[in-house]
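User: I'm putting together a teaching handout on how sequence relates to shape, and I'd like one worked example. Could you take Mammalian ependymin-related protein 1 from Neovison vison, show the sequence you're using, and then write out its predicted structure as tokens right after it?

Assistant: Happy to. First the sequence, then the structure tokens directly below it.
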Amino acid sequence: PVGGCVEGWAHCTLRGGGGLFEYILLYKDRMMFQIEQATKQCSKISLTEPWDPLDIPQNATFEDEYSIGGPQEQITVQEWSDRKSARSYETWIGIYTAKDCYPVQETFTKNYSVILSTRFFDIQLGIKDPSVFIPPSTCQTAWAERMSEDCSW
């Protein structure tokens, strides 16, 4: 399994509802900052979901192994899920490199209308710039509720 960020930080950018939002998730503090990029308005929201260490859970079901890419540019990946025989579908599918178990893609299905799919690229070990996890000064007076983005994750 991949040795992820032990303290559980995440930094991402999401476009939704015509706006561009940056998210800083500080799992150790159980806090998420949602920053609207044009105005720098900020919301500070409690995190309720646990940190996802981006590894293959012990109880995962092996689905398949295959190569992605073209000739002389292939990499072997393995696909895992939380599918169980008593359920008709899985709620999590993870694709990882076979050699070092780096994440390639994860898909979470909360219900039939909410799906979160994450693709991983340009992976580097460690955190190159820890300052991306420091909320901007506008977050000192952050709103206590999430700004509308027309999607939920």
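A couple of points you could highlight for students: Residues 1-9 have pLDDT under 50 and may be disordered. The longest strand covers residues 103-111.
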